[in-house]
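Title: Prediction job returns without error message
Component: structure pipeline
Severity: low
Priority: P3
Assignee: unassigned

Description:
Job completed but the reporter wants confirmation the result is attached to the right record. Sequence as submitted:
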Amino acid sequence: MENITLSVDDEGIALLVLNRPQALNALNVPLMQELRAALEDMAADDSVRVLIITGSGRAFCAGADLTQNALRGDEGASIGELVADSMKREFNPMMEMIYAFPRPVVTALNGIAAGGGAGLALCADLVIASEQAAIKVVQVQQLGIAADLGANWLLQRIAGRGRALAACLLADTIPAATLQEWGMVWECVPADQLLDRARDQARKLAQVPAETVLATRALVDDSSACTYIQSLEQERQCQQKLCNAPVFMELVGQFVAKK
C-alpha cells in the first residue's frame, strides 16, 4: 500500500494513516481503493478491536484530489455525471464502510480537514483533535458546489442547523478549540500527545463488546427520526437482545464485585 499505512498492535488497536502528505492527504482513487480494501480486511478480522484514522504530515485530509484526471471520462458525459459517478463508485462506498465499521472508529485529527476531509473526520464514533487541528468546509464558497462525504448530515446533527449552514456557506476555518466548544470533537490535546491520547481512549473502547457498540451507534443515530416513546421502545428491544448475550452476566459479576 502506497497511499495509506496500517498497523495493528497486540491489543487489537488498528492505526490507519492517510499517507499522501505532499498532497495534504487528498483523496485520489488509489488511496480510496486501498482504504476500502483495508477496511474490508479489518472488518473480517476479529482481532481488530478499534480503528484509529489519522493523517500524515500537517494535514488530516484536504478532501478530493482535484489535480488528478478525475473529471475526465467517457466522451459525451457531463462533468456533473462524472462527479456523481465517482461519488457512487468510490467516495460514498468508502464513507459507508467507515460509518458502518463493526468496531469503534476514532479520528485522531492531526491537522486541517478541508472539503470532503471534514466529512471523513467527523464520521467516526469519537474525534480527538490536536490543538493545531481545524475544519474548513470549502466546497460551497470556493467551488460553488455542495458539501459532501456526509458533512451536511453530520454537521447538522452535531453542531445544529445554524452552525452547519454557516460552516458550509462561509468556509471559515474552525479551529480545534471551537470544534470542542461546538461538540464536534470530544477533546483537544497538544499535538505531540494526540496519538497517545487516541490510543488511551481506544483501549477503553476495546473493552466494550462490538455488538454493544453497534447497538449504541444505531440508537443514537436513529433517535432524531423517532419520538421519545419510540426511542424507549427501541431501547427496550435492544436491551432484550444485549442482555441475552453471555458477556452481560460476566460484566454484571465484575461490576458488582467492584462495589
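Comment from assignee: result matches the submitted record. The mean pLDDT is 94.
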